[in-house]
Amino acid sequence: MATAIANGVRLHYEVYGPEGAPALLFTHGAGWDHRQWLPQVEPFCRDYRVILWDVRFHGRSGCCDLVELDDFSRDQVALLDHLGIERAVLIGCSMGGHISLRTAILHPERVAALVLMGTPVTSAYNWRNRLAITLQARSLKRFFSELIDVSLQGFSFFFYGLTLRFASMEKIARMHAKGLSLFHPELEEYFYRVTVQQPKERWNLIWEIACRMETLADLPKVTCPTMVLEGDAEWMMRRQHRFICEAIPQACHRLIDGAGHATNLDNPEAVNGCIDGFLREAQIFNMK
C-alpha cells in the first residue's frame, strides 16, 4: 500500500488500473478496512482507476484527534488531491457511504456520482417520529409492523450497547463476524480479524462517531447521479435508504438478492453488474 498525509493523518491506500482512467474511490464501513472492496478490483481495474483506502482510525491508516465529523470527507478530498484526481465516483458502504454522501454535499464539484450500500443518514429519527408518521397514514397494518420493527431494533441496539461496554474485543469480534457472514461463512475470518485487531477504546470511539453522523436535512443538496444498492436481507438501513431515494432527485434503487449489510461481499457479482450498468447507462464518464 502507498501512503498519503492528509489533514495531519497518515492514510494508506491502493490504486489499480490505468493512471488516466476515470476514478472510482471505494470507502469501507465502520470497523472494516480497504479489503472489503477486493471483489470489486478485478472487474473494474481494466476500464477504471480503482482506489481503495483505509479511513482514519482503521486498518493501516493513522489515528489523530477528530475535530469535526466532516474531517472524514476532507480526508477523501485530500486523497483525491494527492492522486491528482479532479472528479471521482464515490462508492461506499455503511459509514463509508455516509462519508461519501457528505463529500458530495460539501464538495459537489469533486463527485461525478455516488453508489451507496447500507448507508445511514440519521440517528435522530426516533420511535415517536416513526409511529406518528404511520398513524398519519391511517394504516393499522403499517403501524403494527412499524411497532414490531421499532421494538426489535430497540432491543438490538440496547443489547449491543451493553456488549460494547462490558464485552472483550474477542467476544465483540466473534459476534460481528458471525452476524456479518450469514450468507458466506468463509467471510467470518475476515470480519473477525479486522475487528479483533482494534483496541477496545478505539472501537468504542469508532462507533460513537458513527452514531453521531447526520445528513438527513442535507440530502436534497446532492445533485449528482446516485444509486442505492440494498441487500434483500438489509433490515438496519432499509428506512434510511428510502430517505435517500426520496430526497435526492437523481437517485435510483436496486435490490440485491442474497445480501445483507455487507452487500458487496455477500453478492459481489450482482453488485458489480449494477455498478457497471449504472456508470454506463448514466454516461457518468461518457463510456459506452
UniProtKB/TrEMBL annotation:
<protein>
    <submittedName>
        <fullName>Alpha/beta fold hydrolase</fullName>
    </submittedName>
</protein>
<dbReference type="InterPro" id="IPR000639">
    <property type="entry name" value="Epox_hydrolase-like"/>
</dbReference>
<dbReference type="InterPro" id="IPR050266">
    <property type="entry name" value="AB_hydrolase_sf"/>
</dbReference>
<dbReference type="InterPro" id="IPR029058">
    <property type="entry name" value="AB_hydrolase_fold"/>
</dbReference>
<dbReference type="Pfam" id="PF00561">
    <property type="entry name" value="Abhydrolase_1"/>
</dbReference>
<dbReference type="GO" id="GO:0016787">
    <property type="term" value="F:hydrolase activity"/>
</dbReference>
<keyword id="KW-0378">Hydrolase</keyword>
<feature type="domain" description="AB hydrolase-1">
    <location>
        <begin position="22"/>
        <end position="268"/>
    </location>
</feature>
<dbReference type="InterPro" id="IPR000073">
    <property type="entry name" value="AB_hydrolase_1"/>
</dbReference>
